[in-house]
Amino acid sequence: MGGGPSTLLDKPWKALPTNNQESLHFMKWYKPRNKEASHLRILLHGPVGAGKSSFINSVDSVLQSRVTGRALTDANSGSSFTKQYKTYKISNGPDAFYSFVFNDIMGLEQKANNGVHVEDIKLALRGHVREGYKFNPNPLTEDDPSYNPSPKLDDRVHVLVSVIPADSVSLISEEVIKKMREVRLAASNMGIPQVAILTKVDKACAEAKKDIGNVYKSKYLDEQVNMFSELLGLQANCIFLVKNYAKENDTQDDTDALILCALRQMINYGEDFLNDL
User: Does residue 215 have a pLDDT over 90?
Assistant: First the structure.
């Protein structure tokens, strides 16, 4: 992996906004132009322990200007801690919410009967999975009360996000990559845009751990992005590096910038998707 010294490039290979306030203003006032959609739905998927729930908490933390922990996480579990299909709305002042929501799902696992079933993710993409559905080894069927037979645009997924730890890109099993590619293909067939985030950059790269501002200058992290791009078949410019809030008690501008950069692209892609319908 990349715990050793990392060669830094002279210039970052992805530019970050110099001021987070413009991005925060954009998030605060964003609303889908498509009148059939009251919000933009972002679905996170990836292997167990990738940092999906932690990313939701981190976005919430950035937007609330304080570290939060609404999406429950487990640092020690070898199996998925997320058991239900749940939508997370983020408070945007008294009696209001941001116009984008996140869905967290059970993690993908190597064995066929463990973790979330690929068919359940495909059903979620189409909006057929109701809130609170408990994931199990057998996929959701049409006669299940948790199956939504007539999804509205609000129920459907508008952006698919693949989440992988930056310190273990080369260790992802072929079975998990196969499942992720199958989900990507299904999303592509539905026209759903896709983004990926590599989490735990501070664990993957010593230079990033020393200074989070070095993330997009890191040659090692650049290599991990290119490796994941080849594994998943996703363009490198759609892959973002983030550090989730885990040990911190307060938010930090450089960490916020990484999260906001990824989130802004998710919203831009999702908005384009909604406008093309």
Answer: yes
